[in-house]
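Anyone opening a protein record will find just a pair of labelled lines. The record below illustrates this layout.
***
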Amino acid sequence: MLEWAGVGLAVVVLVASALRFAQLVFRNEAVSSDGALRALIEDKDSTLTRYLRILGVRLEPFVFAAGLCLVAVTISLLFLTLFEEEVGFSIAAGLTFFPLAFYGLKDLVAWRAQEFEWQLIDALDLSASLSASGVTALKAIEAGSQGSSPQVKAEISNLVLRLKLGDSIEGATARLLDRYRSEGVRLFVNLLRSRWHGGADFDALLRALARVLRERKTFFVQARGQLSGAKYALIFAAVFPYLLIPFFQSQEPEWLAPITTHPVGPIILYLAIFLQVFGLLWTRAILRSKSW
């Protein structure tokens, strides 16, 4: 009965993970445009491809997804080595890796967006100084990005190129807004759109935005320092049990025998792994919550 329950759970997780990754691989998020540059403006990359480009991973989505599947198979085989007759639980243990990989990928993308926002501050300061000296808004943001990080320079250069080729400000900023979805980037995009449509005081807006982003950075650094204890405790609690297993196994070779030989041993081990994964995801949600 428990064997069939494990197989059923594995099938459910497999189907859900396959649907989610298929959605990431095949979903297109095209940007609407007006004008003759529709081919340049539309971003036909899948969501997973966009994630990989943001992270600087030069792999095709299918290759990356295949790598995740190989890791899941490895986990299943390791579990099957301990419990040769528990095929269903072995598959379910391997498929537990997919939710962790998905949320880990999203966290890395969010971290890169936050880093992009912080790197944007220096470009804003230089652009504000150039705009105050009489340089046009387009030249100011283009020159301001030259001394910034490669990511900021590439995105601002793409934005400036689209504007020079006659694109609208909405179309030119669409890729930046789509790739780096943070509050600071949204404020920067809205600033550019208000300047192009309303002709506001550009250097004053840039200075105000740079001050706001700098205050946000200070707040996040302080909050990260206050939560560092909980984060390191979480990492320690997640990793330490797996470090103890080889140590006790080397001291006492039969230390895992009760788990591998007892009929309910696989159930206890899998429930322990499942509860650990669930606890990691729950703690992640608490640490990332903005309500605290």
Observations:
- The longest helix spans residues 202-251.
- Residues 25-44 have pLDDT under 50 and may be disordered.
- Residues 142 and 157 are 6 Å apart (CA to CA).
